[in-house]
Amino acid sequence: MKAPMPMATRMTEAAFAPRAKPMAPPTTAQVIQLSSLLRCDTSNLAWKDTTPSVNFQRDLVAVRSQARLNSLRYNARRVAMIKGFFHSGLVVEDMDKMVAFYRDALGLSVLREAHSKAPPEGDHTGIPGAERILVFVGFPDGGHQIELVKYIDPPSPAGRPDKHQLGASHICFYVDDMDAIYKSLSAQGVHFVTPPIIRDNADGSRGGICYFQDPEGNYLELIQG
Q1: Does the model's pTM come out above 0.70?
Q2: Which pick of 71, 158, 185, 200 has the fewest CB atoms within 10 Å?
């Protein structure tokens, strides 16, 4: 059984198909439906709420032109929006303990520190006058960073989402030797959700994955291979 033709195609072909007699103007509902399918703005078209268009072909051209313009605008925004990753942020309770973990246990470097206090009339965090301590950790040669954020005023409320709760997140790291880092971190008292799950790859290498937590319960992931 032949599949039915999409509505937008049927309406478009009906609009441009040769006819022996003058084509009856479409209803307002048809124009609204077609413009909705093409995802364009119809506020400036010739038809009115109570009167069908007397020049549907002209309106259809306007609809298609507007859709094309919207597409070009979207592509321009998409190109300009995102250039790459910069950092992930974690709100922390004990800055000294967290810096020691990411620096000493995981081997990241402290890249910069800042004491931030925003003016009441313009704070990008959405908390007017927020006072924070910021510490960025990562690799000196660049790449993704982790921003540790300690709120001084107002203080952060207690509570953290569980690993499967809405709003929960994690940060993933590549490693070369899963077994070695697992043994090293375990010996330092780091809590692992499970031991590493190791697999043998077809090329003879080994791969693995595991989750663990930092001192304040944030979930982290290790990937090998």
Answers
A1: no
A2: 158
